[in-house]
Amino acid sequence: MPPRLLLGLSLLLAPFAGTHAQDPAPKEYRVLLVGNSLTYTNNLPALLRAVGASQGTPITTETYVAPGGTLSERWRDGNAADALRTRKFDVVVLQEIGGQVGCLASASRTRTAPCAATVQAHEGFAALAKASGAKTLLFTTWSHDERMQGRIHGGMRKLAKDTGATVFNAAGAIASLHKAQPGSTPYPDGTHPSTQ
């Protein structure tokens, strides 16, 4: 996972990371990550914990992911929702397949079953997070097609507006890194980011 991507995610967590000089130890922040291989490839949870440790901010993570999995599948299996109901988190990171989010940019596709299930899952997770005092971050994924990337961004904006979540533009962070280092290979297998 690119360092700028991790830095961006850790900056979004920064409002929760303020410690006071009189505090004997920094607060530990609990992050729930829900998604698929774009979350677990390169072990994003472990990298996030390492970034926190390097900044003196302990972060613990709990992760619910499956290869090629959708948020609606994670919502239906109930495990991540149960975690939100029974344990305290400061931040919930939701990472959906881009095409599932891109459907929200089209009024006709919004009414399809997969698109409606995506909306329901985002709304359900965000409502549970809000009820427990956690902040919800929507992890923007990437597409190699510019038009699809535009749809993904549009879908993320709509989800953020409807759920009160904050968009974390992971796709933009990776694109910025590639622009700054044109010789880099951001997606060696065509989908998952390199450790670079």
Could you please describe the fold and organization of this structure?
The chain contains ten helices and five strands; from the N terminus they run H-E-H-H-E-H-H-E-H-H-H-E-H-E-H. With 196 residues, the protein is α/β, with parallel strands linked by helices. It is globular. The mean pLDDT is 87.
Quick description:
The protein is built from 10 helices and 5 strands, in the order H-E-H-H-E-H-H-E-H-H-H-E-H-E-H.
How are the strands of the biggest sheet laid out side by side?
2-1-3-4-5
N-to-C series of helices and strands? HEHHEHHEHHHEHEH
DSSP E strands, number? 5
Q: Which percent band covers the strand fraction?
A: 5-15%
Rounded to an integer in angstroms, the radius of gyration calculated over CA atoms is 16 Å
List the helices and strands and how they pair.
Elements: H1 3-13, E1 29-35, H2 37-40, H3 44-54, E2 59-65, H4 71-77, H5 79-86, E3 91-95, H6 98-102, H7 107-110, H8 113-131, E4 135-139, H9 146-163, E5 166-168, H10 170-180
Parallel strand pairs: 1-2, 1-3, 3-4, 4-5
Helix pairs in contact: 1-3, 1-10, 4-8, 5-8
